[in-house]
């Protein structure tokens, strides 16, 4: 880890004691900063808070007293905390730098970084690149939005490592000098507009991944996305490495004659990929392009793409149970993600499990996709089940049933399906109305499925 004396004996405020806040606090304290952690929740019994107190970190929970900003040199905020938060607004008014832990990690890392962002597909692409990089001259460490906080990783990463980091728009918006050697941008859809306000603001946050890149760095980008091209690629100073499903991008990754290529090198037949769906083919092309510029061989790329079975809860293949093929796509918390899942099985009949938190949106955009997909039945649960019921009726889905939750949906799915069908959990909604997380929702789905073995 590089040395950073900028904040030695300076006051640093960490806003939000989540995974990233805990790691950032530990790191800044080790750098000699006077660290205070502030969280809206009561932290009196929190184990991480107790540990930080023992390390000499001041802990303030139960609200956001603005006087904590006095003489503060840096505010490190949890990525999910909006910029409308009174503490953040006041810090910006006082011209206190407001960053996320990604910025600190970037300043300190000895290891080169591959950063991956996009509205959909980040986790799968990050995991694919991580697997492919095991066959490079680097020892990869997968981190960021996918799991371990970057400020925890940089303390042990060396020049022998490569950090493969999934990065959200929330994380990237809080960066200033962040500089990955390879930046990967998958797509830009109308996501998180409640946080960013406009698509332009959202795209601007995503563009931070390449803002400080130079001609010695690489931008791997989706040449089929007009938003990625216009908002990001055209403005980047890095070497551009495109990937495309529709064009023969000979300076990057593409599909030709049913084969995946990187530049002039044929990697493998599309049909031999271990994960289904056109969206996963796009993720594979992005991974091939990123791994390719890092020196991974076509053979090693092919081996990974053939053996990789998907990220947990992202169109995750579970098993064949009583002849039904089971997929857990609990991470599909929006219409676009569910649409991609529905079209991943063109030759199978699908029993779909959907529903969840009501965020006030309609599901009209899902109607034509429900019509096109080979759906046998839909099981609906959660706050949105009435809205989804209306969409399914308009799409003339043959069988529609309302159930209480995922637990109740699984036995109905087996009753309405037959061997050869796909049972697919792809909710198109967040989970928080009934479950703590999409992970918990997916785990419960798998546990219920296992009862039918």
UniProtKB/TrEMBL annotation:
Its EC number is 6.3.2.9. It catalyses: UDP-N-acetyl-alpha-D-muramoyl-L-alanine + D-glutamate + ATP = UDP-N-acetyl-alpha-D-muramoyl-L-alanyl-D-glutamate + ADP + phosphate + H(+). This is UDP-N-acetylmuramoylalanine--D-glutamate ligase. It is an enzyme of class 6 (ligase). SUPFAM superfamilies: MurCD N-terminal domain, MurD-like peptide ligases, catalytic domain, MurD-like peptide ligases, peptide-binding domain. It is found in: Cytoplasm. It comes from the Bacteria. Belongs to the MurCDEF family. GO terms for molecular function: UDP-N-acetylmuramoylalanine-D-glutamate ligase activity. Its main location: cytoplasm. Residues 116-291 form the Mur ligase central domain. Cell wall formation. Catalyzes the addition of glutamate to the nucleotide precursor UDP-N-acetylmuramoyl-L-alanine (UMA). Pathway: Cell wall biogenesis; peptidoglycan biosynthesis. ATP binds at residues 118-124. InterPro entries: Mur-like_cat_sf (IPR036565), Mur_ligase_C (IPR004101), Mur_ligase_C_dom_sf (IPR036615), Mur_ligase_cen (IPR013221), MurD (IPR005762). NCBIfam families: murD. Keywords: ATP-binding, Cell cycle, Cell division, Cell shape, Cell wall biogenesis/degradation, Cytoplasm, Ligase, Nucleotide-binding, Peptidoglycan synthesis. Residues 313-429 form the Mur ligase C-terminal domain.
